[in-house]
Amino acid sequence: MTVKTLAIVGAVLVALSTLSACGNTIRGIGRDTASAVNATQDAGRSVAKAAN
User: Global pTM?
Assistant: First the structure.
């Protein structure tokens, strides 16, 4: 393999690793957002029950 080929393979591996990390981060943000929505809904239900 030439140096140019090794550089291309290395660049592709770095790009794939970066994209994989971004995918995990986005998935985590989605879970956090869903948890926040659920907590807000639960709090709203608690307030509604207390008002009755």
Answer: 0.57
